[in-house]
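Give me structure tokens for this 316-residue protein.
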Amino acid sequence: MTTTSEATAVGRPPTKAAGRRVRRSGSLTPYLFLAPYGVLFIGFILLPAIYGIWISLHDYDYLLPHQPWVGLSNYTDLFKSGSRDGADFWRSIRATAIFTVFSVPLLVTIPLAIALLLNRKFPGRTFFRAIFFTPYVLGVAVVGVLFRFLLDPTIGMLNFYLSKVGFSGTTPWTTQVPWAWVGLVGMTVWWTLGFNAIIYLAGLQDISPELYEAAEVDGATAWDKFRNVTLPGLRPVMLFVLTLTLLASANMFGQSFLVTKGAPNNATRTAIYYISQVGLQQYRQGIAAAMSYILALILVLVSLLNFRLFREKDES
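Here you go.
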């Protein structure tokens, strides 16, 4: 059958049917490229999420042959005073909120300052970019074990060197609050700031240099250029960084599990940590799934609020 290109090559105009076939096949091309991701999304995200909702409606234990239907009681029990899991769950939510409130501002502002420095031209700039990003490639297990030895109140290197320079060498970095939160937030900032810095750096390089030149002609100071050129140009990037950091901080698990073990008295046991204990150690997957969906709903609401605030700033 003569195709469009063949008909054109021999001097005959393409038929309408051939043109329709070409347009129809071209319209399917984007879906073919999206198909591999669609398969992964359906198989590893959508179907497990639907199955998780089904689990949350049962008194589910995969070791038992029968999982009784309990409806919404797994959800309602978490809001009842005196229930088995309600107090501990909301305490873990509180711990998650504390970690998020103290880590997110640092992970938004410090990487921005580093990106502004690394965006300047100076010898060894590429080397320093790699140095700041290097900790991010380490796994949470490596970072957790490393800081477990650094922050240990008895044999930790941090207390040892603090005692050598005149400070207290008995600070309980992993066993008492607020020091445990200082240690967890500090190690998380050190570990992940490189990723946010690279994202900011990419955003800075997309801002046109002509805007800075125009600001200099108008007599703008460095602060004026930062406030009126850099920040508006980085607004989409800042929204991305803030949202991603909020979600990552709210899902913190490895640092608490490896460094503090939830101490003292489960004060640093985050929501993901507690959910994993209920579901994987106590074999109560039904109530653990319900906790997971309540946490997910909270994160969705926080993300929507974040987007709304940024949209209002853009409109103003």
